[in-house]
Specification:
- With 210 residues, this protein is mainly beta.
- It has two helices and twelve strands; from the N terminus they run βββββββαβββββα.
- It has an eight-stranded antiparallel barrel with strand order 2-5-6-8-9-10-11-12.
- The longest helix is centred in the C-terminal third of the chain and has 12 residues.
- The chain starts with a strand and ends with a helix.
């Protein structure tokens, strides 16, 4: 198995080669080395990019049977950041995400399947309490063991959605045709996840039992 294959993520399941098989091993997101962003068209002629500064994910990887793996990602909508305060406040308002009423964007996988030589995660994406089934293809790098004995892997991919399907409906038409802000949004992610060395995990379990 190659170190880098086309697989499913986001959010995010991977068959880990060369690592002892332990069913549903939990991986933690390394937030300092992870990113979730988005891209939309402005006036149909340029791309505006932004990111979410706060998010977390639950990754459970069955290293002996990929189909038993799962991922759940939760994004803090108020953490949206396009580098422009006025625009960010507008995006947090009811015209777009309504971060006060809907504080989380959530993706949760239902199944993992093979596709085109790799894998896909089939799951539900929820924005503003509107849920749609999506299929997320991803690319996975690793796994590798870092100098401290932790197993790490990288997950990258992107998903195209129609924001209107999720109730993000603010729109303004141009006299020349098209929209000020495109309905199509591309969500991209690059996640570095870590499975702590076994000794650390066992120590945590013993502390919890005590």
């Amino acid at each position: 198995m190659s170190k880098k294959t086309t697989t499913v993520l986001a959010l995010a399941a991977v068959l880990v080669a060369g690592v002892p098989a332990l069913a549903e091993e939990a991986y933690k997101v390394d937030a300092a080395h992870s990113h979730i962003g988005f891209t939309v068209r402005h006036f149909g002629i340029s791309k505006v990019r932004g990111e979410f500064n706060s998010f977390d994910a639950e990754l459970k990887v069955d290293e002996s049977d990929l189909a038993n793996s799962s991922v759940k990602v939760e994004i803090d909508t108020a953490s949206i950041d396009t580098g422009n305060e006025q625009r960010d406040n507008h995006l947090r308002s009811d015209d777009f995400l309504n971060a006060e009423k809907y504080p989380r964007i959530v993706f949760e996988s239902n199944s993992i399947r093979e596709a085109d030589g790799g894998f896909e995660a089939v799951g539900e994406l929820t924005i503003r309490d509107q849920t749609r089934e999506v299929v997320v293809p991803v690319e996975v790098a690793g796994p590798l063991t870092d100098p401290w004995g932790n197993v790490r892997l990288g997950i990258e991919g992107e998903l195209e959605i129609d924001r209107q399907e999720y109730g993000v409906s603010w729109s303004q038409a141009l006299d020349s045709g098209g929209l000020v802000v495109s309905d199509t949004v591309i969500i991209s992610f690059s996640i570095e996840a870590m499975r702590p060395q076994q000794e650390e995990a066992e120590d945590s379990e013993e502390s919890a039992e005590g």
